[in-house]
Design brief:
Layout lengths: L8 E5 L8 E6 L5 E5 L12 H4 L15 E4 L2 E4 L2 H19 L4 E5 L5 H15 L4 E3 L6 H11 L9 H5 L2 E5 L3 H4 L1 H13 L4 E5 L12 E3 L6 H14 L5 H7 E2 L1 H12 L2 H8 L3 H13 L3 E5 L1 H4 L4 H14 L9 E4 L6 H7 L15 H11 L12 H9 L5 E5 L3 H4 L3 H10 L2 E6 L12 E4 L8 E4 L4 E5 L12 H11 L10 H13 L25 H5 L4 E2 L3 E2 L5 E2 L17 E2 L18 E6 L15 H4 L6 E4 L1 H7 L6 E5 L4 E7 L8 E5 L32 E7 L4 E7 L10 E6 L4 E7 L6 H8 L8 E7 L4 E8 L2 E9 L7 H7 L7 H6 L15 E3 L4 E2 H11 L4 H8 L9 H16 L1
Helix pairs in contact: 2-20, 3-15, 3-20, 3-21, 4-14, 8-10, 8-11, 8-14, 17-19, 28-30
The structure holds ligand MGD (2 copies), iron/sulfur cluster and molybdenum atom (MO).
Length: about 900
């Protein structure tokens, strides 16, 4: 008898955030994929957040780019790989021959695997001979990189996740950890539950979900972190908290850093005023920091994405160096990385300002070392164009061809309309992506289909320097190829010889060997010592590569042959500057360049929501993930809303000197007066006009070139419309003629939120045209109150709901959740049919409200009613009763907030 094969779980790594959780993926008999956390992976010990847990829902081939395509006058034409590769290689060769190597550029991504990244960098810097390769990590990690290089002499993250468990105090600066690094946040909460004396401090202008469990929240005025940390440095010096012997033996620069800080920040009351925080709270923080040995200061985009980003990073590191709190368990500055392979890109040096393997472009010995190892015809001699400069050079015609890989710059760059103009002008735009329709692909002359997560093989490095394998468990879709292979095939067609890798393990091997090449003690012939070293992973066989365990670098091989990773750096108090000493950097505070004024009185802050990933090309496919935040919004303080004449639930126009968008007004995001927050996730594919990148100023940090995504002057005004509507439809709709729309993925249907400025003349004809219905088709229920401007219609086929549309002059439409649930029914129950045109169930309590817990699909109404009726006091009680919060824990801060609010409402 033949038994079907037992599905085997493949150990791989989550493709989303830099926590780098281990995943066990099992391909099921029906083609589905079961996803579970990998209990053996040090990053997550078996847990996954909502996004990771929903991976199985995002792997379908709908919307995938499956074949190479070339643009012709009539549109995109499917071509053979040969034709596509020849076009790219031929055009690049011709442009380089005529205009030199700097006339072409690669714009790549922290979502590539290390092997892809390695090959891209080698091609550009060693063979084409230009450093015009930059990455979306410029938008993300470059300030942290520059800060590390200045302080430590190399881009090194000192600590590890275990430090978050061991710390007595964790300071989170500009990091919404609860939503953006959820598994790390869960770790901190667990540590705090075990040791309640542990203190959690959040420094963020918004009262985010991360603050719900904090002991102290400092709602700093946007852009003032350097004042705050300079003030801390002064306080530490004033109160004898400086570790004099550490400073003397292992650092330089304290005197200059302190003298600079003292100019503006010696008085904590003055600092509190500048940072607009309560002076008592600020002193509380300073005292706690001074008194606590084991402090971790973890930081993310509220720090990096600033015109003072690098100084913010160094002002934080200064406080750790001055107290010697680095390199030991439970302490240190900790840059939380964004993308799954933000670190890998830095290791291979795939930024315009780096060389490879932590060597420097402006160091002739390093250049010679890399060129000799590569045996390459060229080596780039100076820095190439950083992302913002690159797209400006493209618009000016200085760069004539760009190849964009695994990033969507028409959405994610600042001043995104400029990026659009640049691509329109560019002679050859090549895009490698897994998705067919993106805002960037719309400008591509050549589209190259890449393998995606679950299909490709290679490695990624997470925030704690841990290198993990991504492994394939899905078949190759269409004609897609791995990114590294596509790059090699173009390189070969350009006539270059260093790209004949026999497999991805050979690329990794070359990368590991380069990291170890001439990497010995200084002084010995030709050596250029670097801490980044993968000597222990050099010369792995294919089999060993396939079974590689997740380990943190530097990775050396013991005499016994065992591979030894390094959990922490600087335990020996030696830093990577030539003299072995760390540097404190003077960080004179400065305000953002474009401050609010009369025309644009607010500060626009941009960032992420819990359940979406960037431009939504993957998470946007999951109905479960769409439940949490469905629509683009602008979060504004209620008093500012009154002042600027906008109302919660209504639409508003947000504009800056660079662009404008339309989003729904909401409160409750913990925003202070004077600021607004707009999420980054919506593109032209998912909404008519909600691409926030078009609003963001393109000012960058002078050291790192990282854009100021968190601070653009802006204004908000009412966006008056004549009607609001929503449609739920089993079929995708073209929505011809609708000016304002958002598309949201539902379970077996698409949801469209619509609005219009011109009144609808005849509802019936309008609805039928939008729903693409032919005359006389279908069981059509409708209700119209013409004088009130209210219209509702439902289209049934064989007692199954196909589509529905609800229109009102106000945004007071019925909640979508109950109607959405009807799409899961093969036949409507009679009771459901009765409620159809009401848009809500006849029986009470059947509508759970907006989703709070995505894992178990538990809504706000359900949770609040349970809290009220059963007098619940804790998250644990809510979880025990409703399951909510019991899986990934991402919604625990929100449940806690509901407990507080409901409890307070009842007490009042
Ligand atoms: N759900 C989800 N998770 C993600 C991602 C995602 O798309 N979705 N993306 C990943 C990536 S690539 C990244 S880079 C990370 C980003 O992770 P985070 O940096 O945590 O996320 P952001 O929402 O960009 O911004 C963080 C916070 O900075 C605050 N901030 C703004 N201005 C200032 C300021 O002047 N000072 C201080 N101290 N704070 C300020 C904002 O209010 C915001 O709450 O998330 C990763 N994880
Ligand atoms: N306003 C504002 N803008 C921001 C930020 C902000 O906070 N505010 N944050 C910035 C930051 S930190 C980041 S990291 C960026 C992120 O911005 P992007 O990198 O532009 O966003 P993604 O949607 O992740 O784009 C990844 C693209 O790669 C494709 N893709 C996925 N897997 C693969 C693969 O294996 N191979 C290939 N070739 N393609 C693949 C996806 O379909 C998608 O089109 O946004 C930046 N932009
Ligand atoms: S925290 Fe979530 S998104 Fe980040 S790696 Fe882990 S499962 Fe993936
Ligand atoms: Mo990022």
């Amino acid at each position: 008898m033949n038994f079907p094969p037992i599905p085997v779980a493949v150990q791989t790594t989550c493709p989303y955030c830099g926590v780098g959780c281990g995943v066990r993926a099992t391909l099921l008999g029906d083609g589905g994929v079961a996803i579970a956390g990998d209990a053996s992976h040090a990053a997550n010990l078996g847990r996954l957040c909502v996004k990771g847990a929903a991976l199985g829902e995002t792997l379908g081939l709908d919307g995938r780019l499956l074949h190479p395509k070339v643009r012709t006058q009539t549109g995109l034409r499917q071509v053979s790989w040969d034709e596509a590769l020849a076009k790219v290689a031929g055009t690049w060769r011709a442009i380089i021959a005529e205009h030199g190597p700097d006339a072409v550029a690669l714009y790549v991504s922290g979502q590539m695997l290390t092997e892809d990244y390695y090959v891209a960098n080698k091609l550009m810097k060693g063979y084409i001979g230009s450093a015009n390769i930059d990455t979306n990590s410029r938008l993300c990690m470059s300030s942290a990189v520059a800060g590390h290089q200045r302080a430590f002499g190399e881009d090194l993250v000192p600590g590890c996740y275990e430090d978050l468990d061991l710390a007595d105090m964790v300071v989170l600066v500009g990091s919404n950890t609860a939503w953006c690094h959820p598994i790390l946040f869960q770790r901190m909460l667990k540590a705090k539950a075990a040791r309640p004396q542990m203190r959690l401090v959040v420094i963020d202008p918004r009262r985010t979900a991360t603050c719900e469990l904090a002991d102290l929240h400092l709602p700093v005025k946007p852009g003032t972190d350097v004042w705050l940390f300079n003030g801390l440095l002064c306080y530490l010096a004033q109160h004898g908290a400086v570790d004099e012997s550490f400073i003397l033996a292992h650092t330089n620069g304290l005197d200059e850093a302190l003298a600079t800080a003292e100019l503006d920040c010696a008085d904590p009351f003055a600092v509190a005023q500048i940072c607009r925080v309560d002076p008592v709270a600020l002193l509380d923080f300073y005292q706690m920091f001074a008194a606590t040995g084991k402090v971790v200061t973890a930081f993310s985009q509220g720090v990096n994405q600033s015109s003072a980003g690098t100084d913010k990073v160094n002002s934080i590191i200064n406080c750790h160096l001055s107290t010697g709190r680095i390199g030991q368990p439970g302490m240190g500055p900790f840059s939380l990385t964004g993308q799954p392979n933000a670190m890998g890109g830095r290791e291979v040096g795939a930024m315009a300002t780096m060389l490879a393997a932590h060597m420097d472009l402006d160091n002739p010995v390093h250049r010679e070392t890399v060129q000799t190892f590569w045996d390459s015809p060229h080596i780039a001699k100076q820095a190439g164009l950083k992302a913002v400069d690159l797209f400006q050079a493209i618009e000016q015609g200085r760069v004539k061809a760009v190849w964009i890989i695994a990033t969507n710059p028409v959405v994610s760059m600042p001043d995104a309309s400029q990026v659009q103009r640049a691509l329109e002008k560019c002679e050859l735009v090549v895009v490698s992506d897994i998705t067919e329709n993106t805002d960037t692909n719309a400008f591509a002359h050549v589209l190259l289909p890449a393998l995606g997560w679950g299909e490709k093989e290679g490695t990624v490095t997470n925030s704690e320097r841990c290198i993990s394998r991504q492994r394939a468990f899905l078949p190759v879709p269409g004609e897609a190829r791995p990114d590294w292979k596509i790059l090699c095939q173009v390189a070969q067609r350009m006539g270059f010889s260093g790209f004949d890798f026999g497999g991805v393990h050979e690329v990794f091997d070359e990368h590991a060997r380069l990291s170890a090449y001439r990497n010995g003690p200084a002084g010995a012939a030709g050596n250029t010592p670097r801490v980044f070293n993968l000597a222990g992973l050099a010369d792995l066989s294919q089999h060993q590569f396939e079974h590689m365990e997740a380990l943190p670098w530097p990775l050396l091989r013991q005499p016994s042959g065992q591979i030894q990773g390094s959990v922490r750096l600087f335990g020996d108090r030696r830093f990577a500057h030539a003299d072995g000493r760390a540097r404190l950097i003077a960080t004179p505070p400065r305000a953002p360049l474009h401050l609010p004024d009369q025309t644009y009185p607010l500060v626009l802050n941009t960032g992420r929501v819990r359940d979406q990933w960037h431009t939504m090309t993957r998470t946007g496919k999951s109905a479960k993930l769409a439940d949490h935040v469905a629509e683009p919004f602008v979060d504004i303080h209620p008093q500012d809303a009154l002042l600027y004449g906008v109302q919660a639930g209504q639409l508003a126009r947000v504009s800056t000197p660079w662009g404008a968008l339309v989003a729904r007004v909401q409160h409750g995001g913990g925003i202070a007066r004077g600021s607004i927050f707009v999420p980054i996730h919506w593109s032209n594919q998912s909404a008519s006009d909600a691409r926030v990148g078009t609003l963001v100023n393109p000012v960058v940090d002078p050291v790192s070139g990282e854009p100021e995504f968190k601070h653009t002057r802006a204004r908000v005004e009412q966006f008056g419309v004549a009607w609001h509507a929503f449609i739920l439809s089993r079929r995708e709709l073209a929505l011809g003629g609708v000016t304002h729309w958002t598309r949201i993925q539902g379970r077996a249907f698409a949801r469209y939120e619509l609005a219009g400025r011109t009144p609808i003349a005849g509802f019936n004809a309008w609805a039928r045209q939008l729903l693409e219905l032919e005359d006389g088709q279908a069981d059509w229920l409708e209700y119209e109150d013409g004088s009130a401007g209210v219209y509702r219609a439902v289209h049934l086929v064989d007692e199954r709901i196909e589509q529905c549309v609800f229109v009102s002059p106000r945004p007071d439409l019925p909640a979508r959740a109950w109607l959405a649930g009807l799409f899961g029914m093969a036949q409507l129950a009679p009771a459901a049919r009765v409620g159809l045109l009401l848009g809500r169930p006849i029986e009470k309590g059947a509508d759970g409200g907006a989703t709070v817990c995505s894992c178990f699909g538990v809504g706000m109404t359900t949770i609040c009613e349970a809290i009220r009726s059963q007098g619940m006091q804790s998250v644990a009680e809510v979880t025990a009763c409703l399951k909510a919060g019991g899986n990934c824990g991402s919604c625990v801060p929100e449940i806690k907030k509901l407990l507080l609010e409901t409890g307070a409402a009842q007490a009042a």
